[in-house]
């Protein structure tokens, strides 16, 4: 099973060209992906998308006919032209989707050092539960994708805590699911609760940052699997390959890794590889590929 995560910068390459087609083509060249998790996807933001594909969600749906598309808007507001503008995360799944959820992340006020307010915007996490083709039988897998605040460490820290809490809450419900009437076919019907999870996206923090450590902390109940950064699981002490500032330095002096994939501990025996496509110039970030072995028995 293959997953690619990529901050697409509204599908704008380093050449200034906005092209969802190029994003999909380069992702396909990287792997025959089952799951494509994209951050910074825009709808009707003319300053970002231009006029060629103003609704990037619709265009990606056309480009990925074999995948089911789930888009979560962190920003959703009416523009001066009266149209709704959206900006957020997208999950495209070739695997059967059992449930989709969109969680707003904390956006606390941050006055900053000068008390004038730190530049920021709303952030969210899209969670899609798929039926993963794992041996000995398919089972639910939570796929979470997010894009955390860049400018405000205070907000980013609150968002990391919220993500940790989201995972812990989902694990707790898997251990103790809500009571369900066997005859119910309404919104109280049984849900696909699972402790198994992948969390990916642009976290806007480097390896070794306190927040990077926090998201991997053990959960309160020892029966619930914590999240683990998959890079050291596969590569040991080798430094993370950079995923940002690789080909240009507009936002900093040196390349850094800030796009990660975390997995719940029960999935670690399945992890076969994680790699970064360092040559891509289709965005200001590099795509990250993770492959899990479907044949490993639980």
TrEMBL record:
<keyword id="KW-0255">Endonuclease</keyword>
<dbReference type="InterPro" id="IPR051916">
    <property type="entry name" value="GPI-anchor_lipid_remodeler"/>
</dbReference>
<dbReference type="GO" id="GO:0004519">
    <property type="term" value="F:endonuclease activity"/>
</dbReference>
<dbReference type="GO" id="GO:0006506">
    <property type="term" value="P:GPI anchor biosynthetic process"/>
</dbReference>
<dbReference type="GO" id="GO:0016020">
    <property type="term" value="C:membrane"/>
</dbReference>
<dbReference type="Pfam" id="PF03372">
    <property type="entry name" value="Exo_endo_phos"/>
</dbReference>
<keyword id="KW-0378">Hydrolase</keyword>
<keyword id="KW-0540">Nuclease</keyword>
<protein>
    <submittedName>
        <fullName>Endonuclease</fullName>
    </submittedName>
</protein>
<dbReference type="InterPro" id="IPR036691">
    <property type="entry name" value="Endo/exonu/phosph_ase_sf"/>
</dbReference>
<feature type="domain" description="Endonuclease/exonuclease/phosphatase">
    <location>
        <begin position="4"/>
        <end position="285"/>
    </location>
</feature>
<dbReference type="InterPro" id="IPR005135">
    <property type="entry name" value="Endo/exonuclease/phosphatase"/>
</dbReference>
């Amino acid at each position: 099973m293959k997953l690619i995560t990529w901050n697409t910068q509204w599908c704008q390459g380093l050449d200034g060209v906005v092209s969802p087609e190029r994003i999909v083509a380069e992702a396909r060249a990287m792997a025959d992906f089952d799951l494509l998790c994209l951050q910074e996807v825009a709808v009707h933001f003319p300053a970002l998308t231009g006029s060629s594909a103003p609704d990037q969600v619709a265009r990606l749906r056309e480009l990925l006919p074999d995948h089911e598309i789930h888009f979560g808007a962190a920003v959703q507001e009416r523009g001066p032209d009266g149209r709704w503008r959206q900006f957020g995360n997208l999950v495209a799944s070739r695997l059967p989707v059992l449930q989709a959820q969109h969680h707003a992340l904390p956006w606390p006020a941050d006055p900053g050092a000068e008390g004038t307010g730190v530049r920021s915007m709303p952030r969210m996490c899209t969670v899609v539960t798929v039926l993963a083709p794992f041996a000995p039988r398919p089972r639910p897998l939570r796929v979470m994708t997010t894009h955390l605040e860049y400018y405000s460490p205070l907000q980013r820290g609150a968002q990391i805590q919220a993500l940790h809490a989201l995972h812990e809450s989902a694990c707790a419900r898997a251990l103790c699911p809500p009571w369900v009437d066997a005859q119910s076919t309404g919104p109280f019907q049984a849900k696909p609760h699972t402790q198994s999870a992948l969390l990916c996206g642009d976290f806007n923090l480097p390896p070794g940052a306190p927040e990077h450590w926090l998201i991997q902390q053990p959960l309160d109940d020892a029966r619930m699997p914590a999240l683990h950064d998959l890079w050291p699981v596969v590569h040991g002490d080798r430094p993370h390959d950079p995923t940002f500032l690789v080909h240009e330095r507009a936002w900093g002096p040196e390349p850094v890794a800030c796009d990660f994939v975390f997995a719940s501990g029960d999935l670690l025996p399945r992890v076969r590889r994680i790699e970064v496509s360092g040559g891509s110039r289709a965005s200001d970030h590099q795509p990250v590929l993770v492959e899990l072995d479907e044949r490993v028995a639980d």
